[in-house]
Amino acid sequence: MVSYEIRSMTEQDIPQVAQIEKLVFPTPWSEVAFRSELNDNALAMYLVLTEETAPDTILGYCGVWKIFDEGHITNIAVTPEYQGKQLGKMLLHAIMTWAWANEMNHLTLEVRAGNTVAINLYKKTGFVETGIRPGYYSGNEDALIMWLRREKTALSEQSAHVEQSEQAT
Questions:
Q1: Residue 110 among the catalytic residues
Q2: Structural domain contains residue 31
Q3: Which listed residue (21, 122, 141, 151) is catalytic?
Q4: Domain for residue 168, yes or no?
Q5: Which strand (E) or helix (H) includes residue 94?
Q6: Would you say residue 148 has pLDDT above 80?
Q7: Residue 16 forms beta bridges with which residues?
Q8: Is 167 part of any domain?
Q9: Catalytic entry in 37, 46, 61, 110
């Protein structure tokens, strides 16, 4: 059985993250953009996913900006050869856990209207479509705007159940 680890992104991870970005997205962020996110954006948190036995090999990553009590998910990507193994779901749940622990009450994101795999993942997690940004992406592709309210998530319900159990003892 393979074990995975999710940790904060470091400067050393940026070349691999940028490579995954190039493989996954038609208009990828550059190494400079990721470096700026890590060093200059105090509102940003980026996580990377690795196999426990190969902690220096990045398989996927995700990022979020904390804006007051909201989180804006910037990127979620898994290297193509590891897609379909539920790693995107693991990253999404990790960023949700971080967001809720950091007093965010909502998460939002944009996703390409044609990216049905990602849209299905977000919907299964509780995100709902709330709007469209016409021509948001290169090639004039629309973006779906999706939101998740903390009170609507299973993670919040589990946290509330644990807190209630602790209060009862």
A1: yes
A2: yes
A3: 122
A4: no
A5: helix 87-101
A6: yes
A7: none
A8: no
A9: 110
